[in-house]
Amino acid sequence: MDSSENSDLRALPAGAKKPPRLADRSRFRGYRGGIIATHRALARFVLEPLDLTTAALLALLLTVLWLAALPWLCRFWRFVLENGIRKLAMHAAVGLTAHEITPYIRFSIPYPRMEGLLPDPQTWWTSAAVVPILFAASFFLPKKLLPVMYLLRAVLFIHFTALLFFLFLPARFSHSPDSYMEGLTGYAVALIGFVPLLFGLTYYIFNFGILRKAFLTAATMAHLTLFLPLWILLQALVLQKSVLFMPVLFIVFGLPVIVIIILAFYSWGMSWSFKNQREA
Questions:
Q1: For residues 8-39, b (16+ Cβ closer than 10 Å) or e, as one string?
Q2: How far does CA 268 lie from the centroid of its chain?
Q3: Tens of pLDDT, residues 67-81
Q4: I want to staple 107 with a disulfide (CB 3.0 to 4.6 A). Which of 43, 71, 151, 246 is the partner?
C-alpha cells in the first residue's frame, strides 16, 4: 500500500494536493485506474529569483544574437528576393532601408519595389464576379470546415469593400506598393526580433528547462527567417497585378500570418511535459 501510494504521489505534478486515502480517492482516478493529474492550466510553478534571472538572461542573449546576425540575414534576404524576382519575371527591383542600432550594428532591410497599378476594368469585373461565386460556395462547405467558411467570408467582405472603394474613389488611394512592402518587411523583422521577449514573458515562466526554452525560441526565429523572403515575394507577386488586392494582403495575409506562426510554435512548446514531470 505504501509503495502504491508513493508512486501515485510521484505521478502528481508539483503543486497538486495530496488525494484522500479511502473512498474519495476514486474521484482522482481515470476509468483505467490511473491518477488524473492536475491540468497544466491549474498547476502552479513558483518562480524563484534564479528562474527569473535565467529567463531574463536567455531572452537578452537571444535578442543580442539576433541583432548581431541581422546584417548577414539581410544579405541572405536580398539574395533570395533578387533571385525570386528574376525567376518569376516580376516587374520589380529590390530596395533597401538602412538602419543603425549602434555604430557596430548596421544593416539594410531589403524589400521589393514596384509600380502601383490601379485595377483595370477586366481585373475589377473579374474580381467582382468571383466574390459572389465564392460567397455562395461557402454555404456548401461541410460543418467540420466551419472556421474556414467564416474566414472565407471575412476575406470576401474585405475584398468587397476594396471593390467599392476603387469603383467610386480610386484616385484617393494614397498607398503605394513601395511604402507598403517597405513597412511590411520592416515590421515583420521587428516582430521576429521580439520573439525572445514574447516567449520570455509567456513561456519562460513555465518549468520546461532552459534547453527546451532556447530551442523553441531559436526554432521559431529560424522558421520565420526562412519564411520571410518567400512570404514577401508572394505578396509582391499578387500586388504587381493591382493595388486592388492590397487591403486583403495587409489585413489577412500580412502581419497576422507572422503572429499565427509564432502562436503555433508557442502552442507546440506548451504541449511538452514540464521538467518535474519528466524527472518523476
A1: beeebbeebeebeeeeeeeebeeeeeebeebe
A2: 12
A3: 999 999 999 999 999
A4: 71
Q: What is the pTM of this model?
A: 0.80
Residues 39-51: tens digit of each pLDDT:
655 655 666 777 7
pLDDT at res. 193: 95
| Environment class of 272 (CB within 10 Å of its CB; exposed 0-12, middle 13-18, buried 19+) | middle
CA 57 to chain centre: 23
Amino acid occupying residue 71: P
10 Å CB burial of residue 102 (0-12, 13-18, 19+) is exposed
**Residue 116: per-residue pLDDT:** 83
For 234, residues 6+ apart whose C-beta sits below 8 A from its C-beta are none
Checking phi first, is residue 37 left (phi over 0); if not, alpha (psi -120 to 50) or beta?
beta
Give CA–CA dist 194/184, Å, rounded.
Answer: 15
DSSP H helices, the chain, are 2-11, 49-87, 121-137, 146-168, 177-193, 195-202, 210-239, 246-251, 255-270, 275-279
Question: 197, 169 in Cβ contact below 8 A?
Answer: no
When pLDDT is averaged across residues 141-149 and rounded to a whole number, the result is: 92
pLDDT at 1: 46
Q: Are 221 and 67 in contact (CB under 8 A)?
A: no
